[in-house]
């Protein structure tokens, strides 16, 4: 709440939220803050509130065209009306400036994956994929028609889509051309008896390492669409080293201070867990198990040191840590307080080292010819997050950069960068 208040009082004029963020808690917090700042903010018509619908949060939410089956995602008009009503209530308002269809591609993701995994016999693959995507295009037109009526009712000012599939490579089976979406919107406006579509906004990821959206933004802006970019500081990468079904990895474009104390903690851990079998003719089974467990832990620490440069993100390390923790619980029935505290400190310091190495790798990539938007010249003392946000703000065609901020110091940084870039 404090970060949002500071943002609004500092001049931020666009709020980007969703019915799915925090199970609706994001909208509730925004409604509370806006109501509390009613007399301190500039005119309401200078503030744009954008929300989204598409992901089902309640166990009772079902697709009206598929009665009784609970879904994870739905863009049916009835569901849209239901979610909009809830959003307006949470936001404590009777009007929403922009309502976006969130991740519409999720509707056909499983169908497309099925076609790719098991292509229909005797059918051209391109035709099979087109047929797999067809239900989405039909549903979008129906939803856009309903959204046009909702604009006419005064509940929303306009609508659009929030969809990273818009900026996928054209060869990607999940790619959705923005021109096709706009054509559907224009067709829906005509069906609703309107001369001009209320479809006005595209929202998708653009950042200095995923820059293909810049061209899309520039082209869409020429056709009168407003483009909101998101994830300016977060890179999404496929997890090529794990299960293909695993979620993608996230790499944060943030700098990490040079970690201190890691080598000392590492040496302490290696020494602390150095155990030998007691000098006796018949060591107990417990003694042998403890020695073997400590040797395993020493080998683990040494292996982690070798793996340090290989982690691509902190999230990748955190996934690894889950498995390590489970193995530790199997090796040691119980750890004394000193041992447990030392291990906790070691893994914390190791995480700091991973952050430091990942930031160094990212900086090296951005300054190399391999970077699609580069190579860039970055001063050594410039934090990566500052550079990435400055880059996003300078891209033509992008009207708004959506930046998630949860702390007041993040707001101070962002406002300073915006001021310097303007």
TrEMBL record:
Residues 3-162 form the NADP-dependent oxidoreductase domain. InterPro entries: AKR2_Oxidoreductase (IPR053135), NAD(P)_OxRdtase_dom_sf (IPR036812), NADP_OxRdtase_dom (IPR023210). This is NADP-dependent oxidoreductase domain-containing protein. The lineage of its organism: Eukaryota, Sar, Stramenopiles, Ochrophyta, Dictyochophyceae.
